[in-house]
Amino acid sequence: MDLDWKQRTQQYVQARRQHPAWQLLAARSSPLVLSCLQTLFERSHDGIVCEEAQQALAALLEQHANSDEFGVDADDSAAAARKELRAWIRRALVIEREGRLYATDALEEALRFVAGLEGRLMTSTASRLSIVQREIESLESSLNPDPRSRARYLQRKIAELESELAAVNAGEVKVLSDAEATEGIREIFNLATSLRGDFRRVEDSYREADRRLRQSIVSERNHRGEVVDKLLNSHDGLLETPEGKVFHGFQQQLGRSAELDAMKHRLRSIIRHPATRSALNSQQQGELRWLIIRLVDESAAVIRARARSERDVKGFLKTGLAAEHHRVGELVNDILQQALAVDWGSVAVRRQAGPLPPVAIAVSGLPLVERLRFKASEDDEQQGLELGSRSMDTTLIDEDFWDAFDSLDRQALMERTLALLEESGQAMGIAELARHLPPTHDLESIALWLSMAREADAPVHRQRERVDVLGRDGIALRFQVPQVELGAEHLRGLDMEI
Hints:
InterPro entries: DUF3375 (IPR021804). It comes from Cupriavidus basilensis OR16. By secondary structure, the protein is mainly alpha-helical. Among the domains are: 16-117, Orthogonal Bundle (Arc Repressor Mutant, subunit A), CATH 1.10.10; 179-317, no CATH class; 410-491, no CATH class. It has 21 helices and five strands. It has helices spanning 2-18, 20-26, 30-43, 50-63, 77-90, 105-117, 128-143, 147-169, 178-219, 224-239, 242-254, 257-271, 275-279, 282-289, 291-341, 347-350, 399-403, 410-424, 430-436, 442-455, 488-491, and strands at residues 48-49, 94-97, 100-103, 460-470, 476-484. Strands 1-3-2 form a three-stranded antiparallel β-sheet. Strands 4-5 form a two-stranded antiparallel sheet. The radius of gyration is 35 Å and the shape is flat.
């Protein structure tokens, strides 16, 4: 007993520290973040733009800036919104891909928990007992290997179906009551919602497998066969999970369009039923109406996640070919060195049984060592090494050689920028920085300033400004960049990767 509660306590403590849904629900700003993300994801089914999410969250934080309950920074709500979103991206609550945010299963779990507090998904009615009894009977019959028991069960089902068919032919059609119809509709909605959650978990599993595969490629010296085996084994393992089987079954149904069309018509018929209005609200009705399209979109996201791993492995196979050839050459050289160290003059050594069978014809006319070499050298002339110094005119070297050494000193530019901002005592934009510190590497310098502003969480506005610089060849260049307010307080203590 003591072991049970200790293990559960340790498990719950670890979940509170690591699970994104628990961390979100325990955060002070969770009502604001949940309401903002839920509203945005309901409007868009293909992710939301990251800037749009930042603006919406900033407006929401600004409305509650005077409340001590949420701990919102009233001075700069935009910076607080950016920090909040980046924190949840790092905790894998949402995923950022190509400037868009996508919900994860952890966010869906948090939203389902909050929705469950309102009791909107309550399905406990009086008819659930009969449903449980029918499922128990069906499961017991499927588990029982006795043929006579299975025959009695099937005969009873056939008798019930024949009786129902006779009643229908007689014009007596029995339909569900309002309570039973409401419960059935809610049950379908719950199952449909869980399907989308299963697809999210499959996508997260593929991304986790892709992360582990990338780490193994970088940290371990695996050859191409091992990497391909890891990729295929991870994909096969994911398809064996419960959610993976659900996804695989839906993918098979996509190839049978008739079944999907029939499902669409049945869903539309259910939505038109009067009991749907009392079972589901307008938002839930819309989600049920577009269930097929949502599932197709979710499956497309899973396929894109799986294709990313395949592209990584394909790139590794191409780029790692030369390195693998080098390792094969090293192995062959080791074998030849070991062969040279063998005492071939000893008859006892030559007559020892080898671990490998012969793979070539016997060449008795060559010495024993020469048989293991690719080619014997036939040129006996000794060639001396040229160790004399040679001079060359540096003016004959191409300009591209010298341009390769002329790169931007990023650390020096960061230090000069910080010194300028501390001296001026005010925040500056990119155009003003370019006037005080004329860029020597036009585009690279501007990109570094923008990266500094992003890493330092400096205010970035939607308005854009023009930056006029003079290129290396004397041609005037004009760049359109976002307006930023980069101050010395943003750069102090900035740990940015150069």
